[in-house]
Amino acid sequence: MSQMREIEKKVESGIRLNDADALFLFESPDLLRIGALADRVNREKNQDRIFYNINRHINPTNICALSCKFCAFSRKPGEEGAYAYEIDEMVEKARTAVNQGATELHMVGGLHPRWPFKRYLDMISTMHREFPAVHLKAFTAVELDWMARRERRTLGEILQDLKDAGLGSLPGGGAEIFHPEIRDQICDTKVSAEQWIDTHRLAHSMGLRSNCTMLYGHIERYEHRVDHMRRLRDLQDETGGFNVFIPLAFQPYQNDMGIGRYTFGFDDLKTIAVARLYLDNFANIKSYWVMLGQDIAQLGLSFGANDFDGTVTEEKISRMAGGRAGMVMSRSDLEHLILRAGRTPVERDTLYRPIDLEKSLARAAEMRASAGDASPLMLPVAHARKLSFATTSSTTQVNAEDPANLNWENLLAACGKMRSTLPTADGPRQIVLTGLTAASGLMEAASIPFEKGFAELATAGVRRVIETAADATNQSLHLIHKAAHRADLPTSGRVELRSVTKPAHAGEPAASRIDWNAFQTQLNRVSQALRPLGMTAISLEASRDGVITAGEYLDAIQRLRSAAGEQAEIVTSILSHVPTLAPAMGLGNDGSQHPAQKLVPLLADFGADDLGLIDPAMIKVNRLVEDIRSAGLSAAGDWPSDAYNANAGLDLRHKPDDRN
Predict the structure, then answer these.
(1) Do residues 206 and 128 both lie within one domain?
(2) Rounded CA separation 345/364 (Å)
């Protein structure tokens, strides 16, 4: 029996996974099988319900006595960008949030060298007096240790005073990675792993629940993650005091780590899934949109997570480190993303108690009636092991429907010009021609036989022709495709994924959804055309006039693969113009990683073969190939020989580091 099957049988039988099992899962490239298992476990614990809360982050100060290498948030007194809020300022920020329905205030910050313990005590007592019904989650184990040492008092005394003043629970920050091999390198001035654990053990014994975190994606290896989670699992066995486990994806900028890239989407989802399977004594695993971005965070709901976090409003720590998910999401945004993942949003309080469950379920039903229901993402088992792509350095596109290509001579001239533009060291550019029917129309107008016309296109450098208006009932299309194939030009069909907007309903804003009926009509037409027309590929495009979530795009690929069978190559356009969630929320390419790049390794698992044509000015080829290889896939493509350094290897047994 394979080790994966042994792990599945353990999970099915309720037998706890050991450290070797967790390490195997981290090292396995079979993400979707792991994800499906984690999703099943999550559904057994939480049904299809996904928690969110209305909360407000307030970071009192970024002035800090420590100098952790990974931190981009901290500043020294007088340094540019340093700030320290007065308590009155914090109260006003909180008041705005509470008036908008916030049930939680989350307060963590730097270790201000001039703030006495009384400042923190006044902060809590003032907030509690002003907002007695709001839960105050504040101060990491690192901050509490700082307060105790400055006051020369015990940690228990400090915690008791804060609890008496109104402190409700502790956040999970400061855990980072427990293993001393890594902790000594990234935050040697912070409390030790043992001190962090002891602080939370003490808090639990005093009736204060807490969260726990793990910072991953920097210099740690998989065995360090397993060690970290084992310590958390052991304490949860002992006290049962943790509310939730939160994997925190490392943000790469303005720190001293020398890492210039974001985490791999493949690894983000696997970390969530392994946490769900290994941390069997945790009811809640968070897919934290602030760190992961909205696309990956939403996908995490299909990989074992049951919490999406909340509205947040102002989270500065990850933002200053390069986080691109923004600092605020509305209740409506959170609910719609959860609904579009095929799940049911349920508002919770800080301690993971539903806030009026019946109202949440009724609200979800009302939103479904308005925007249309969505199916949960079904994770496939079989998948390809290779992704291909071409770059604009070696390949370009010519559109036969372009008004500039008014006749056959103009089209041939356009192809010739494009082929000769910016020739590469590996030879002249190859051309993808879009508009098969339009091109054949120009041939007919010029009295050029189809076979001769396609032969001329091949001579001009065309390597593939993509249909933009395929119609399987048109008898002439068979002749057109056959003529192209005789000229050794493969032909592709095309389908488009469209997002439509439902009007506002019952006080809710307008909601987008996928027009699956229109998509299925296109699928039927193109899949029926595959055999008679001899298409070798189908291109999946996306309309530019609406938002398409990551899960919906992967679902469309899977539907396309199912309809096409194994005979056709599936080409995606996710790195060219798919309007994913990050750009839709005002966030885009920062020059390091395209917002959709984290999704790339998943495409092959759902049935894609080719990423289409990408622009190296937007997508760094080295990093794209590394992303693909992080999933245990091979990369193939038509890129110039100097665009990728094949010696920049990737050891899948270890967490990938930065290779430019």
Answers:
(1) yes
(2) 7
